[in-house]
Amino acid sequence: MARYETVIGLEVHIELKTRSKIFCDSTTEFGGDPNTHICPVCLGLPGTLPVVNKKVVEYAIRAALALNCQIAGFSKFDRKNYYYPDMPKNYQISQYDLPIAEHGYLDIDTGGGVKRIGITRLHMEEDTGKLVHQGTITTTPFSLVDYNRAGVPLIEIVSEPDLRSPEEACSYMEKLKAIVQYTGVSDCKMEEGSLRCDANISVRPAGSSKLGTKAEIKNLNSFRALQRALSYEVERQIEALEEGGRIVQETRTWDEGKGVTLSMRSKEHAHDYRYFPDPDLVPLVIEKEWVEDIRRSLPELPDARRRRYVMEYGLPGYDAAVLTSTREMADYFEDCVASYSNPKAVSNWIMGDLARLLNANNQEITACRIKPRQLASLLELMEKGTISGKIAKTVFEEMFASGKDAGVIVKEKGLVQISDEGAIAAVVAEVIASNPKSVEDIRAGKEKALGFLVGQVMKATRGKANPELVNRLLKERI
Amino acid sequence: MQLFRQTAHELHSLLINKEISAVELNEAVFDRIASVEEKVGAYLSRIRERALERARVIDEQIRKGEKILPLSGIPVAIKDNMCTDGITTTAGSKILANFVPPYSATVVKKLDAAGAVMVGKTNLDEFAMGSSTENSAFFTTRNPWDTSRVPGGSSGGSAAAVAAGEAVCSLGSDTGGSIRLPASFCGVVGMKPTYGAVSRFGLIAYASSLDQIGPFTRDVTDCALMLNIICGHDPLDSTSADFQAPDYTQFLINDVRGMKIGVPEEYMAEGIAPEVHGLIRKALELLESLGANVEYTTLPHTEYALPTYYLIAPAEASSNLARYDGVRYGLRAEDSEDIIDMFMKTRSQGFGSEVKRRIMLGTYALSAGYYDAYYLKALKVRTLIKEDFDRAFEKYDLLVSPVSPTTAFRIGEKTDDPLQMYLSDVCTISVNLAGIPGMSVPCGFAGGLPVGLQLMGRHFNEGTLLRAAYTFEQNTSYHKEFPAL
């Protein structure tokens, strides 16, 4: 048994995809030339005032409900004061002691079954701008600031320290991402920074109920980074304790290139944020009816959908989990099944060939040129015997590249399966005549040689011969 | 006829009767500025060409027989902490000496839409922190009644401009008395409306939960006309009240019979100069003789108002002023080693000592370990002070007191003693903490210097203040006095 237990809690920031920013009407669109998505309010120019975007509050409630949180009837915004050039006002409007939602949870799958992870709180805040450097931060002669992102709405979701391994932390992130994506309030794209994560991690002797001293890890920009950084940190902390040292409470940053975490600042140098209620904003009073309206508008969430896939479509649990991991993939699956009623076949194709091609081409399923109905009609052609399974794979690749219907490709390339017994019999006779050695072998009981002859028939028909017919006819004739 | 001495409503009659033109009026005011500004120093910037251009448009409307609004063509001055699109707005600070906003404050837009002509931006204590304009980074404005004395602050430039005939009306802002004190010292009418009655959008923040914009005028009628323009809900300011502002001129009624007036004894206690005390008593007697019921009452938490204010206001200021760091606009210190050095040098060079003092006070009050003892405690006392007023207003329609314990003090007299300076606001600060409306009306002269009477009312009860002030004014002539400059 392991001598140490790992304790992890995650702080996740998610950008909400409202059209305008949290306190002004500047666009939230990603990218854009530097400092073009700004206005006097999000630049914090003297005399300007914030006004809460109601859509942001609605989205925060939507995400919170999907995460089983309780929505506060009374909530407020506070100022978090610290100096940094990417912050226009040198304070960030956030929520401190009265967040909009608390006491939620989500369930993750672990080796030992389903585990419930507590969510301490969910609150709203504004994003900051970003610094841009020429070359590296150490060699650049100056810093430039792009405020396009300043004021983009964020929700911060803080978990309880319920996670016990880097793997659980990754499962939690994946589940959180799926749930929030399902609600439609964020794209949750880690590569665009719309999903970000900081981790609090400590270790303690197995069996101890007292928490060890934690380190906060920043700069976790991908699932891979999260997994690697946490694994590294577990080892670093255990090693330090084993050597009789102690863990310093500090903030550390993940260095992706070196594969290590590095100290940024210790607790003694931690900021005093001097939180206080923002006097420019009035407290938020949230009506119960509004919350219930939002609750009613929530879509079916990943867990429910997964259960339904097992019950309604008879899919294995694994298939159901993979298919429902994003709303887009689940929608794709259901659209296919609507026109082709063999769910397991559809599942196999989506999880197999489709996933492989999407991955290889770094493409989202929503951008896929094969529409669900088209995949369904390909599967139908196969079922009717118009094309063989092998030909189907070729057609599928062609569909992926061109977006053409399966029927059209089959026709254009003359790929219709030959199921005419007479036509195949003629080829079979020819192959038997020209391969006496193999025929001998088969007769001597060497089954393997049959495969070679099947191959020869397929070759002569350019793969179009119905394989079952070929097999039967060969066996009959030999 | 000296046009620059007239009230806005008198000038409006002259304009619509075509006895004068808006251009003539504005030229008269600019001539007056040219002759007395050197002595007074009310303005940080003047915008003559733009003003005359606006006046010409108004004249054209009059010529065409179009109906003009009550303040059309009237020269007004704006305190330089309100943003004006394309016109430098400094807040009296070196750190914003070169700041040209690309937007106007809501009040500036409203005045513009009402046809008022902006003639310039007036001097103030840096970021509205002060009671004398001596904290302006540029120069000290002088009291038109005695140029060796201060005009009061922080809206000293706006008060002095109206008193000296350099503008007919003006706008100031009041966080702890910054409209009422200079109105009292300069002998003009000044009103701080209810918190939330006037949009703060575009007002460079000092203490957001206390700041409120209001007018300076030569009489109570003009005050009502200004309120008609500036009051009302603004979707750009979350703290602006969602209410339908009334027509304030309906309260210009010469009658206080049956009005119940309370005089908080804490405001008439020792520390009030005898000559001020005497004038306030005389004013109360007049109101009583006009039919009001006057009696002494109590606001028991008054003694805590000043310390409460000096925790809350600096706390908010320390955060509000954090944005002046040299990164995006305003002053940026030269030769900085790194970003922290740039922040420190910029702020060291850009802010004056009073601003620094309040930033330090506020930062301390909000610090970990001190928050509960200082800031949180101050918020609780603020509630007690509000409750004092709530109780008093159960019984009285109006509370009356001096605006300031003294008349205008000499320039330099209190600059070395911040606490003495803070005490100038001892009678005005509670009104801001409670968020209620407060007003200063001229009630006489002591040693040739004006004294103001403070009227305080219930939330959104500016009407009662106007009615009492109008009645007082109709039965006195102090507002007609004009300084000999």
TrEMBL record, chain A:
GO biological process: glutaminyl-tRNAGln biosynthesis via transamidation; translation
Enzyme Commission (EC) number: 6.3.5.-
Keywords: ATP-binding, Ligase, Nucleotide-binding, Protein biosynthesis, Transferase
Record carries keyword Protein biosynthesis: yes
EC main group: ligase
GO MF term (any one): asparaginyl-tRNA synthase (glutamine-hydrolyzing) activity
SMART domains, per the entry: GatB_Yqey (SM00845)
Segments forming domain Asn/Gln amidotransferase: 331-478
Reaction equations catalysed: L-glutamyl-tRNA(Gln) + L-glutamine + ATP + H2O = L-glutaminyl-tRNA(Gln) + L-glutamate + ADP + phosphate + H(+); L-aspartyl-tRNA(Asn) + L-glutamine + ATP + H2O = L-asparaginyl-tRNA(Asn) + L-glutamate + ADP + phosphate + 2 H(+)
TM helices/strands, residue ranges: none
PANTHER family in UniProt: GLUTAMYL-TRNA GLN AMIDOTRANSFERASE SUBUNIT B MITOCHONDRIAL AND PROKARYOTIC PET112-RELATED (PTHR11659), GLUTAMYL-TRNA(GLN) AMIDOTRANSFERASE SUBUNIT B, MITOCHONDRIAL (PTHR11659:SF0)
Self-association state and partner proteins as the record states: Heterotrimer of A, B and C subunits.
Known role: Allows the formation of correctly charged Asn-tRNA(Asn) or Gln-tRNA(Gln) through the transamidation of misacylated Asp-tRNA(Asn) or Glu-tRNA(Gln) in organisms which lack either or both of asparaginyl-tRNA or glutaminyl-tRNA synthetases. The reaction takes place in the presence of glutamine and ATP through an activated phospho-Asp-tRNA(Asn) or phospho-Glu-tRNA(Gln).
Assigned protein family: Belongs to the GatB/GatE family. GatB subfamily.
UniProt protein name: Aspartyl/glutamyl-tRNA(Asn/Gln) amidotransferase subunit B
Organism, as annotated: Pelotomaculum propionicicum
From TrEMBL, chain B:
EC numbers: 6.3.5.7
Enzyme class label: ligase
Classification via InterPro entries: Amidase, Amidase_CS, Amidase_dom, AS_sf, GatA
Transmembrane segments annotated in the record for this chain: none
Biological processes per GO annotation: translation
UniProt xrefs under Pfam families: Amidase
Residue span(s) of domain Amidase: 25-466
GO molecular function, one term: ATP binding
Keywords: ATP-binding, Ligase, Nucleotide-binding, Protein biosynthesis, Transferase
Cellular component GO terms held in the UniProt record: glutamyl-tRNA(Gln) amidotransferase complex
Function: Allows the formation of correctly charged Gln-tRNA(Gln) through the transamidation of misacylated Glu-tRNA(Gln) in organisms which lack glutaminyl-tRNA synthetase. The reaction takes place in the presence of glutamine and ATP through an activated gamma-phospho-Glu-tRNA(Gln).
Similarity comment: Belongs to the amidase family. GatA subfamily.
Protein name per Swiss-Prot or TrEMBL: Glutamyl-tRNA(Gln) amidotransferase subunit A
Source organism (scientific name): Pelotomaculum propionicicum
Gene from which this protein is expressed: gatA
